[in-house]
Amino acid sequence: MNYLPINIKLKNKTVWVLGAGPVAARKISTLIKAKASIHCCAMQFCEQIKIWEKQGLLQTHQKHLEHIDISLLSEKPHLIVSATSDAKVAHSAFLMAENEGILLNTVDQPELCNYLTPAIVDRSPLMIAISTEGSSPVLARLLKQKIEKLLPFGLQKIVQKAKQLRPYIKKKIKNAQARRAFWEQYFDHDNPLILDETQYQDINSQTVNKLIEQNQFQKGKVYLVGAGPGNPELLTIKALQVMQKADVVLHDQLVPEAILGLVRKDAQLIDVGKSAGNHKTKQQHINEQLVYWAQKGFRVCRLKGGDPFVFGRGGEEIQTLHEHEIAFEIVPGITAAIGCAAYSGIPLTHREHAQSVTFLTGHGQESQDNIDWQFYAKDKQTLVVYMGLIKSPILQEKLITHGKNPHEPVAIIENGTSEKQRVVTGYLSQLSELITQHQIKSPALLVIGEVAQYAAQFNWYNQNNVFLELKTA
Ligand code: SAH
């Protein structure tokens, strides 16, 4: 960024315009809107400028512009607009402004400017400025046209109404987050581009009071959001909406940068995956954080990999929220099993090969001798194991000793659905060996069952979905 956009209050402030042709007149018309005290300096003045002078909107000074110095101007200006066609004059005016610390813009010559004027969409008090830092005024103008078309017709009146109401709302709703929530609701948060001015005509403090009563703007809320298996395109629309309105986002380490980049820019991002301590204290810490931010009145997005209720400890989190009487909402996400299976061509169920599918966690299986291995060892079903890398030798051994066919196909999917996805296939008897041999790293999912024979290494990021050779052991 080479220029900082700011809005300058020019009402009754002295502005000099050098030159008095049509270009100068165009610039003057905006300065008149800004209610500046305008002095126009030239030898000859175009018709429009003469009219404005008669209307008392500016003063003219007939002077031969040659070498510009500060003594030429009767009063030190806030701003100078240099619209003269004489290159020498423009140059000396720029040097003078630089020396004197005056803001000067030379029309269409960014190198002779210490400020630039953006293209503006004027629905004052709403003002949208578009600047390309002088690189392409034409592009700025084209964008301006697009935005003009996009904005609702009566926006000016709606903004004026909001301006009137602002002091009242500030007094009525003390909490800043609650106030923001109020205004979002007032402007129809989900559809700000289809605002209809007639809806706002009759709004007064009474109707506003009703709006305040109906809603609990003061209270925070927690959204448990599933971010899907890692590919940003697999986010739900609802997940994206919550990510864009949340004040605070508490996310797991599993959620990749590409997804975090879609969070509202001024939201506070907190990585709770990295917090210190063992598992128990870590979850306790997360629960405390959820309560802390919600009680402050914030909208909290608890962003989790996959689905919040599949091996995501979402159940414990809502229990805590329940105990503290904090409102919450669950936004489901595509769980790793569904995403990874889809992106490696494995149908999780199949008329011939699998009548059921089970999601298992590899965590804590050693101590869980009460696991019904015989049940899992049965034919014609698919087992999908989450967090199964470390315990894969035990898993493999237990299933086989309880009667599972050692030649049952398996697929190991690492970083599923992302451009780094890797799929390795083989037989159950080779499971842990394959993991070591191919140096599979977390996050990875194990699919055990006849359906794993369909695993394919697709290149989903290639438009033609090229089928790559699959390494089968
Ligand atoms: N709630 C998540 C699961 C969290 S447990 C969900 O519904 O998907 C974390 C485990 O999920 C990882 O250890 C891994 O086994 C699996 N996992 C998550 N994302 C994955 C991915 N992109 N590729 C492969 N496995 C993944």
Keywords, please?
473 residues, Helicase, Ruva Protein, domain 3, 16 helices, 19 strands, disordered C terminus, Cobalt-precorrin-4 Transmethylase, domain 1, Rossmann fold, binds S-adenosyl-L-homocysteine, 5-stranded parallel β-sheet, single chain, alpha/beta
Overview of the structural elements:
- This protein has 473 residues and is α/β, with parallel strands linked by helices.
- The chain has 4 domains: 14-117, Rossmann fold (3-Layer(aba) Sandwich), CATH 3.40.50.720; 155-214, Helicase, Ruva Protein, domain 3; 221-334, 3-Layer(aba) Sandwich (Cobalt-precorrin-4 Transmethylase, domain 1), CATH 3.40.1010.10; 337-458, Tetrapyrrole methylase, C-terminal domain (Methyltransferase, Cobalt-precorrin-4 Transmethylase, Domain 2), CATH 3.30.950.10.
- The protein has helices spanning 22-33, 47-54, 87-100, 137-150, 155-172, 176-186, 197-201, 205-214, 237-245, 257-260, 279-295, 314-323, 336-342, 373-376, 392-401, 431-437; strands spanning 14-18, 37-42, 58-62, 79-82, 103-106, 119-123, 126-130, 221-226, 248-251, 268-271, 299-304, 327-331, 356-361, 381-386, 409-414, 422-427, 444-448, 457-458, 467-468.
- The strands form 5 sheets. The chain has a 5-stranded parallel sheet, sandwiched between helices. The protein has a 5-stranded parallel sheet with strand order 10-9-11-8-12, sandwiched between helices. A 5-stranded mixed sheet has the order 13-14-17-15-16, with helices on both faces.
- Strand 4, helix 3 and strand 5 form a beta-alpha-beta unit.
- Helix 11 packs across helix 12.
- It is elongated and about 105 Å long.
- The protein binds S-adenosyl-L-homocysteine (SAH).
- S-adenosyl-L-homocysteine is lined by residues 229-230, 254, 304-307, 310-312, 335-336, 340, 386-387, 413, 415-417, 442-445.
